[in-house]
Specification:
The chain has about 260 residues and is an alpha/beta fold. Helix content is about 45%, strand content about 20%.
Length: about 260
């Protein structure tokens, strides 16, 4: 797994496939491994660049506060280190929040967006309180508590047992302090409706038909704000549609890539 040094720390990432660079940002509380079907068989015409966020996977924690803007800055610095300019930027759930933050910080770097099982809105007071409770609980009891709480909510009933088990293992392997920091960082994120409205390029919005965390209605709300958005609702998938139905997900990405000038 290659790595780059960003200021005072290291960011590890995967780099597979050939073609249009596609930056994919993972969800909470996971790692780049959560894109394993795509890393094993990238969409045709795509060069996938998939980092571990600070404190997750093989990337050590950073000194900076964990915010969506910091994840976006890390991604931009990674692209700079790889001498890549404008790329397709996408992410799952929390990775989608970071993708929209990147498009806010430097719109010129987001040639297109791929927003997967995510939403543009900020947390209300109740959601912020739930994220703080999650942070406190994982600090007290470890990563297993968040894995046990989240696993039943992530998938459609038809998910393969091996997929469920692998995601459970990935969540349990993450650092409790990083999980807590990420939970608080998501609670503080900004509404990104303005980012979507001003995005000049195409956007692919992917959502599992059985996603109960960010359901299809929220995906449609994002699409309605955009000038050039394609909405892909994937049957037989919940909140991790790229894992549950990788062929349908890859096909949607390939269609987006063919649309690029």
């Amino acid at each position: 797994m290659p790595s780059v040094t960003l200021e005072n720390r290291t960011l590890h990432f995967e780099d597979v496939g050939e073609g249009t660079p596609v930056l994919l940002l993972h969800g909470f509380p996971l790692s780049s491994e959560s894109f394993w079907p795509q890393l094993e068989r990238p969409p045709r015409g795509a060069r996938l660049i998939v980092p571990d966020h600070q404190g997750f996977g093989r990337s050590p924690p950073g000194d900076e506060p964990f915010t969506m803007e910091q994840l976006a800055l890390d991604a931009l610095r990674l692209l700079d280190a790889m001498h890549l300019g404008s790329v397709v930027v996408g992410g799952v759930s929390m990775g989608g929040y970071a993708s929209m933050a990147l498009a806010r910080l430097d719109p010129s770097r987001a040639r297109a967006l791929v927003l997967i099982d995510t939403q543009h809105g900020a947390d209300d007071d109740a959601a912020q309180a739930r994220r703080e409770a999650t942070a406190l609980e994982v600090e007290a009891k470890g990563a297993a508590v968040v894995a046990e709480a989240m696993l039943p909510k992530l998938f459609a009933p038809s998910v393969l047992p091996a997929t469920r088990e692998r995601i459970d293992r990935i969540m349990r392997a993450q650092r409790p302090a990083s999980i807590a920091a990420a939970s608080r960082g998501m609670a503080r994120r900004r509404d990104s409706g303005d980012v979507l409205a001003h995005h000049a390029g195409p956007c692919l919005i992917v959502v599992g038909a059985q996603d109960t965390l960010t359901p299809p209605a929220k995906a449609r709300a994002m699409a309605e704000r955009m000038k050039d958005a394609e909405l892909e609702v994937i049957d037989g998938a919940g909140h991790l549609s790229n894992l549950e139905q990788p062929d349908a997900f890859n096909a949607a990405v390939e269609r987006l890539l063919r649309r690029l000038p």
